[in-house]
Amino acid sequence: MSRTVRFRLNGLSVESTGPPMRCLLHVLREDFGFTGTKYGCGEGECGACTVLLDGDAVTACLVPVAQVEGRDVVTVEGLAGDPECRELRRAFLEEGAAQCGICTPGMLVAAAAYLGGGGGNDESAIREALAGNLCRCTGYVRIVEAVARAAADEGRPERSGTERPASGHRRES
Amino acid sequence: MTTSPTMGTDVPRREGAEKLTGEAVYLDDLPREGVWLGGTVRASGPRGRLRRIVRDPSFPDDRAVLVTAEDIPGENVIPLFVDDQPALVESEIRHPEEPVALVAAPDAETLAVALGAIRLETDQRPPVLDLDEALAAAESGDAIFPPDNVFKCIEIVKGDTAAGGAAADAVVEGEYTFGAQEHVYIEPQAVQAEWTDDGIVIRGSLQCPYYVAHGLTRVLDLPLEKVRVIQTTTGGGFGGKEEYPTMLAAHAALLARTAGRPVRMAYGRSEDMLATTKRHPGRVRHRTGLRRDGRIVAMDIDVVLDGGAYCTLSPVVLSRGAIHAAGPYDVPNVRTLARVVATNHPPSGAFRGFGAPQTIFALETHLDRCAAELGVDPIDLRRRNLLRTGGTLATGQDLGDDVAVEDVFETALAKTRFLERRSEHARFNAEAKGHEGADRFLRRGIGLSLFMHGAGFTGSGEVTLASEVQLVGTPDGTVTALTAQTEIGQGTRTILAQTAADGVGLPVEKVRTMEPDTAVVPDSGPTVASRTAMVIGGLLLRAGRELREVVERRAGRELPDPEEFCAEVARLSAEGPLQVSATYSPPEGVHWDEETYRGDAYASFAWACDVAEVEVDLLTGETRVLGVTAVQEVGRVINPVLATGQIEGGVAQGIGWALLEDVVWEKGRMKNANLTDYVLPTSVDTPPIEVVFLERPHPRAPHGAKGIGELPMDGPAPAIVNALRQAIGAELSHVPATPERILTAIPEEEPG
After folding, report:
1. Partner of B563 at 20 to 30 A CA spacing, among A114, B187, B460, B496?
2. Contact call for A142 and B15, based on CB within 8 A
3. Residue A167: inside a domain, yes or no?
4. What digits encode the pLDDT tens for the residues B18-65?
């Protein structure tokens, strides 16, 4: 069975024709070439395929494409031009929140959903918001710090790029 | 104007920007046009004999290809220490995930149909899945790995344990067991193979491009120059992409050869968890003689690891485990007997820490047991036995004053206010029973572990490798570092650029790093064993200094100004090749005897102390880790942010192994091969982690850096188990200490 589903993808109106139960992850990667959305487990546990669906973070591997009819899908590529996300990416880079990078797009999307929903820099709230996204490299510490920093920065996009907050590590001799 | 050093500064991750926009290209992100997908038919039982591979008439012959062992042009072997593992089963089946046949098709749907059309006829026989059964197989004459099922046996002897034991006031025994652990790099294993006029080209998610290249020369019967291996952006490795990619690359290459087109093999999560290597499970038995004051006079250690069906890297995993088994203590009499045995489980392999986390878990848990049985404080017991300047490790190694174990220990105790916190938890636990509501079931504890990790390859490994790096000038005035070292998330690209830049005396922006491609880069050895920063960083520093000498000599003057220096590099590079190389030479005065396991196993060690605090719910058995403090001495830190990330990530993996990550076996097969049933720590399971570096430059590395990557995996499990001991008043002698195991361990009288 084949159906045509129409939705908005990263701000553009698009349509996808194929089996309606095909998962959004494959549609995004194979049909639209948005390979920033990653496969990690295929059962909604790892969060590497997290995208925004009408502003909420969802795992694209569990969403049949039929479910996005008429809705708004944003992938990590779609966050590129967003000024708030630029701050978030800078925080990720400078805090060392990305290591191997495979969970990073999903993590950024989840963080963007959290911040977009008015989330602040409270550590436990951030940890709760990212609990659906597995990272095997970082132990989450730098990711949580990066999101907290981006939350604290909101409304102050003019902040100097050279200014560095204190990071978690300590050096002694 | 001269350049200030970049080592010691937070140079941002080189490839960070592309990873943050989704632009970084991982293997499965490569274009799919014209590429077929490969899949694997696996043995159906843990042990037996293959009689026949049956191709059902439903096999789509016009749109799929089948490859079996008969189609291998070279040797049917995935070479490592012992050539025991075939690329595809010919007759003997030794574990349930053994690859028997391969299929490729243009798309996933056809591939599934084709795989379903292949049936195996086999004779099954009873498997060997238990360590004692495996050890007994020698007598039965029924070994998986002839003659005795032992891949490797190591004995390390210092002094005389019998005589030492006779002088003891008490002897404490203990047995500690540990489960396998899955790497769960978030990007599953993936490679793509393509035949060209120049031979085979492999692209893949992998750690060691030259391992793959050398392996394929034998399977495909090609000279090395006809095998090209290119690493694509790699979504985590942790040792899991050290040896297995050779298997996957061989499979993809065989399929591509038969299909006549490029073939991609990208494992799904479940297949990856089932078929690829894991951390060696096993057991360690301790028998320790102590004097009344806590001084250890004799240690008898018996290590048995489950290597699975094939040898892979088991001998060197065992070696590291055995050398670390007696810890950072100066004990006069030590005997360590270590064996890794064959079973019908899928092969165990390299995983961050490489045998050391297993033996360190056993020792550090056992020391708290010794303290409890002797009635001394575990802190005092450790303090009494610490390795200090002039003392020797179990291998007889005297590190002179390159010993920081006392520093990390005392720093960790002071930083965490260990003794006060312990008293506070004792008070909390005593009072909890009187509380109302669910709180009365909460108990807290604090524990620590003290450990070291040998930097780089064990023994003479680096000498055998003779790694080479190159620095090349380019006409745009920059310098390019050529190494086979792979960026797998740990920051290789960034820190190698930093060391090269400091060697030449240039800003780091003027140094580029070449992606590992065996057609271009020299063989600087594998990206394993925490060797990259120390060994390859050191070589690049040397090469950098030499490049400056060459450029200044040819310019006829000193060029302290980076702009002038780069202009000269541009001028010389335009004239002809401007290139220097550096090759590893062992530091002076390091001697290792592979036969007796005596001497300097490592040129230097990193030292660390982890302190963990936990809260246990006696009703549910759940453990919440309240915090971990990790104090380590890793020599000079090249990039503090990246180094801190290494420690934090390693601690999180250690927490997973300690509490959550339980590989459940059924007839040799992983029963919970998915991320719903195999539980990884999430952001809410992972506590705040305080990382403290004490930096004492490595005296035998030109830039003072030691290894860092594996060290943080070693300590969390015993620190957490020791904290659990205080919390529940019982010992957990097995990791992972899951809620079920904790509930079983809680003493009957305890719950409030």
Report:
1. B496
2. no
3. no
4. 999 999 999 999 999 999 999 999 998 999 999 999 999 999 999 999
